[in-house]
Structures are given as C-alpha cells and as structure tokens.
Design a protein that fits this description.
heterodimer; A: 208 residues; mainly alpha; 84% helix; elongated; B: 640 residues; alpha+beta; 4-stranded antiparallel beta sheet
Amino acid sequence: MNDKIDLGMAEDEDLVRAKAWWKENGSSIIGGILIGTTMVVGYNFWQSYQEKHASEVAVLYEQYIQSSESGPALDALLDADDKASYSQLARMAAAKSAMDSGDAEQAEILLKAVLESKTDEGLRSVAALRLATVYLANDKQEAALNLLDAQSDKGLSLFQARSQELQGDIYQQNGDSDKARALYSSSILVMQQLGQPASLIQLKLDNL
Amino acid sequence: MLLTIRKKSQGWVAWLIVIIITIPFALFGINSYFEGAGQIPVATVDGEKINAQTFENAMEQRRRFFRAQFGSNFDPAMVDNPQFRMQVVEGLVSNRLIQTYAQKQGLRLSDDALRASIVSTPEFQLEGKFDEDTYRRVVSARGYSAEGYEQQLRLSGGIGQLENGLSDSALVNPLEVDLLLALTLQKRDADYTVIASGGEVQDEPVSDEEKREEYANNEARYMQDDRLKLNYVKLTLDDIVNDIELDEEEIEQAYEAGKGQYRKPEARIASHILLGVPRSADEAKRSAILAKADALVARLNDGEDFTALAEEFSEDPGSKRQGGDLGIIAKGQMVPEFEEAVYSMAQGEISAPVKTEFGYHIIKLTALEKESIKPYAEVKAEVETAEKNRLARTQFSETAETFRTLVFEEPDSLEAAAGALGLKVQVSDWVTQTQGVDDFSNPRVRAAAFDSAVLNDELNSEVIDISDEVLIAVHKNQFEAQHVKAFAEVEAGIEALIQQRKVAEKAKLSGEALIADLQQGTMQDEINFDSLPELRSEVTDLVQRQVAEQVFKRQWSSGETLIEGFSLSNGDYAVYRLKGVTPGDPAMATAEQRSQLETQLANRDANNAYRLFSESLRNSADVEIFTSALEDDSDTVAAQ
C-alpha cells in the first residue's frame, strides 16, 4: 500500500516537476522552434528569390546578346544587376563593339567598370588586359603602364606573360630596346612553360 | 558535460541548440546524411570529390579517341603515363571549377533558349518535327529524367555563354597589327655561302685516347636500354590462304555465285574537235566561233571525215594529232557538260557544238561497249584468289580462337600453340621498349613484351591483333638490363662522331678565316654567294631557314655590311653578309594578310582570356589531387 502511495507520490512529483520545468523553459523552446522555422522558411524564400532574380538576369543577358539595338538592352541588364557575371560579360562585349566602331573612350569606360566591379579575379584579369590594349590603341601608354603595374601581383602566370608582352610593346615603341628585350624574353619563357604559342612575341623580340 | 547542458538548456542556450540543429537541414536537406562515402576520390575541389569512376571514364574516352586516331599504331603508353593522367585530372578539375562557378553565378540558359535548343535537336524530332514522346524516350535512354536533362542542358548552356562571352569580346590592338605586319613585310638584303665540312670525314685521323675520352665522359650517350629477345608465333591470313586448294569445279561455282562482281563497265569512246573560246571573248567573238562550229557540224553531217577535220581545226593540242580521239571517257573525268553529252549519245552520233569552259566541242561517239560480265576464262585467277580469301577468312576466325585459347591455357611456352596450328616458334631480334623492327615496330606488341607477366613471370603474352589479318603472341627468350655498351661495340660510332666534329671544326675555322678576309677586303679568290630571299616568309630550304633565323635577328645600322657566320645543323658552316634592312610598311599589306593577322590576334586573345579565367579559378580554389589514386588506376589498366 505504502508502495502504491509512494508511487503515486512519485508520479505526482514528476508531473509537478515537469510542469515547473515547462513553465520555466517552455517559452524558450517554443521561441527556439519558432525562430528555427522562420529561418528555414526565410532561407527558402531567399533562395527562391535569388533563383528568380538569376533567371531574370539570364534572360536579360540573352536579350542583350541577341539585340541589334544593344544600348537599351545593356542598360536594362545593368539596372537589374550590375554585379552579376553576366553584366561583366556584357560590358566586355559592348567594349568590343565600341572598339569596332572606333569609340575607344567608351570601351575604356566599360572595361574600367568591370575592373572596379566586385566580380571575380578571373573576369577582372581579362578586363585588365583588354583595358591595357584599349589604352595602347588609344595612344595612352602611361595609363597602360600604370594599370599593368597596379595589377601585377595577381599570381597568375598567363596574366604575367601577357602583361610583359604589352609592356614590351610600349618600350619597343619608345625605343627602349633593352627593357623591351628583357620583357619579351621573360614573356616567351612563361608562355613556353604554359605550353602556349609564342612565335609572335619571338618575332617582335628578333627585331630588337 | 550533460549536466552542464541540462542546466544551460534553460534560457538562451536552449534557443541556440534548437537553431543549430535546424540549420543543417535547411541548408543541405536530409540527403547529406545518407550519401555514401564509399567512392575513392582522385581529387577534391573545394572539398567536393571527383571520384575514380569519373576519372576512369574520362581516361577511357581519351583511349578510344587515340585508338581511333592512330589505328593499329595506337600505343597504350600514349595515354597511360603519369603526365597524361595528370593532364586528364587537371582537365576534370578545371571543368568542375567552371561548373561550380556557373552554378554560383547563376549562369544558365533561359526557358526560351532551353526550349528552342531542345526543339531544334534532330534526335528529338520525328519527321522533322519535335516530338515529346521521342524526346522523353531518347533522354531516358541516356540515363536522364527529362527534368534532370533540362537541368544539365541549362547549366552547360550557361557555361557555353561564359566561354562565348569571353571569346566573342576579344580585342585586337590595331597598333600591334601594324607592328606585326611591318615585321612580316620587312625586307633584308643578304646573301650567304656555305662552307662544306672541311674534307672527307673518313680521312680524319682519330686517336685511341680521343675515343676513350669520349666514351668515358659520355656514358649516357652509350647506354643500352633494357632489351628483350622474344620467342614469337605469328598467325596470318596468308598462311591459311596458302593452305587452301581449290579444284576447277569449286572455282567455277564461285564464279557463278559471284558473277555480278565481275562486270566490265560500259565504255564510251569519243573524239572531239575543240574550238577554244578565250575567257576575255565578247559576245560577237563568241557567236563567230559558234558559227564556225556549226559550219563544221554541217560538213561532218555531209559525210566529211571526222579525223581529218579534227586534225585540221581542233584546238586541243592533246588530241588533234590522234584525229580528236580521247579514248574511253570514264565518268567524272571530263567537265560535266562534256560528260553529259557523251553519255547521252548513240554510237556513231555527232553532237551539236557543246559549250564548256574551254569553248565549243563537237563530239563524236566512236564506240560504245555495253556493260558486260567478264567471261570465266578471263577472270579465273581473280575468282580463285577471291574465293580462297573468303574461305580463309572464315577459317581464320576459328583458328584465331584456337590460337588464343592455347596461348592462354599453356602459358609457359608457345610450343603447344605453334604445334597445334602447324606454325613455327621464331626468335626475334633485340627489342627495346621504344624500338623494334618488323612486327616489333608495333608499339602494342612491345608494350605486351615488356608487360610484367611476360618480363617477370615468364608467361605467354596475350594474342595481339597487329591487324585483322595478322595475330602474334610473344614469350620471353632473353632479357638484358640497361647497361653501358662495351667500348668495342660503340668504337666505330665514336670514331665517326669525332671525325664529324673535327671536320665541322675545320669548316668553322675556314669560315672564320673567310669572314676575316672579307672584313679586311683581302680576298684572293672569288667566292660564290647565294642571295637570301628578302622576305622571311619566302625562305624555302633548311639552310636558308637557318640563315634567315640569324639574319633577321641581327641589328643593322645604315651603311654597314655585317659579315658573320655560324655552324649549320649538319656541321657545315654558313657565312652571310647583311647589307640592308628595309622596314616593312603595314600600308603595303594585302587586305587578306591584314585580316588574317587580325583573326589570329583575336583568336589568341580569346584563347588567353579563357585560360586566364580558368587559371584564376584554379588559383583561388582548394584543390587536392591524389597521385596515389591515379597510379592505382594505371595498375588496374595494365592488369586488364
């Protein structure tokens, strides 16, 4: 009998204790679950938003590539997301069109925008070399040298080789054969290590 | 520990724990917990594995490609070597990086473009139109669900956009174009003379010490690589052909059965009279010539002799002396208008004037032999050979099977296989891993010979198909490890080498003397100089190329004549005089030269852009390649 009463007592005690515990912590746990759920829902929502946004940007890029009247299509893409990789590709394409129609200034603006965008190193390196090319075509050797100098520590061997060749072109044009020779030679060396053709650089070097 | 958690699980800690537990499910879904970890990776890219299966598939793809390219010359070592394996892994890594990049940056094909791409794919079409059922069937046959396939296509389309975006925006610096054009158009006024190696090589005395010294100092040059002598058994289709005897009746039967093959094609023999019309001829001239042709046709139709008129009037120098006879006119041999006329004429007919690019032809079909079947007597020998070959081929595949089985089941010697098939076990010359003669010039045979099973375990190789008519199996006869060849063995070679060196040295000395004479103007004899083409692109032979390489490198200042020399690759000595440099003028370049160079430079920039982009991805990624996993792969390949 005693046992039974004890048991009943114990049950009651447990219940009481559980209730007390719940009273103290219940709100924390419910809060936790609520916050957790909100985060999951929020994350999913955010993801689907991102997905939708990315789709829109992809469509705008396709429209830009296919458009004959490229100005407005480019603006629409840049308005939607000027940080996207698509936008940098579009800017580079626009820079090429600008160069083809003889508008080096416009090409400069576009490539600079890629360089200053927070896009990845790969696209920025490509844009940097192309910007230097535009500078050279536009007779802005000083600007080209400064740019290549500022971008020199990327640790990308192909970038280094191309950069050296461009600098070599500048020094060659200014009659500084010694510097040009050193730059071309080292560019050829890197190109060969990369298994890339270097015959045009060799041609320039031979002439010095 | 548990106690602390229990205590702390009141208040904010409880919140935190629940949140932390929830996050992984939100981010990765429940799948991550169940994915197998069994696959061995060959590399990891930012923690993601590239597993051995993917790698092996890529290798197999390369192997198939090379096999298709090189046919029976395919050497497994082209593909199964450490450098190549490394290249393949690097390629996979690079692909993975670009995929991840495209995914992260949201590069993808839009719905419209995706639809357009699928609808226009021929494999998904039925009678030229897109068909939904066909699409689903083809896609599932490739192991995709439609959704999965579309996802894949979307992504690869995005990667394509990236590649095209990088290459289509390639820039060319017009000043660089001008610079390079100027360099290619640069002219150099130079001539050269070659001083042949001084005297007869074999007359040069070489002392014993000189030879010993060369031998002692250049061990690597006189190294004999690992080499093998091999026993081998060769089964060829010819062996079987020669064993087959056919009697008259069998040959005749074969002729009857295959009669259709022994056709004599239709033969049309024609003559013509050509009245040439120059390209520049105007309408009046043209019709005058036509009128003349018409008049000739009229005379022929009146019964005048074709050969006589052809001899008199034809302007085709090749045939006029034969009375215009052109012999058999096979299809595809003449211009189409001519052929059409000849093939629509009856025997003896004379055509109206036929106009071709050469002028007007009056054609006479002098003979027409209908297609016929050659009589038995004429083709008997041909039939016999063909029939023997046919029978031999059937027998060959059976014999080959027996050959393979015996070589495999009696692995300790080739005698059993040879005996059973009536073949001989032969012994080869020395064969190294890279060189062998006759059947051993085939790299697959050498690879089999140096396989560990043959080399170390002294077992038969497997049977190798040198072609579909020649099979071979090898067994080790004798092995010799790498060693420096004995002096006596290489003495003659060393002597020749030193002689050549001495002779080249003499040529150099006389060349240098010539240069000195030329520079001081104290030349006694007249020396013949050949002039070098002015443009580097016009240089033709090997000597000129070597001279040009030097000449176009030299700095030259106005007024001077540079006289210099160098040793040619064959030991002769070249002396050249550089007398002038005319800078190239880019304005003189043809439109074609310019556009060619522009394209070349644009392609270079496009290619560089893509490589640079890949290199950058590779640089900022955490890539680990497990070389040991690659080596394991090579073992399993070799064992297969």
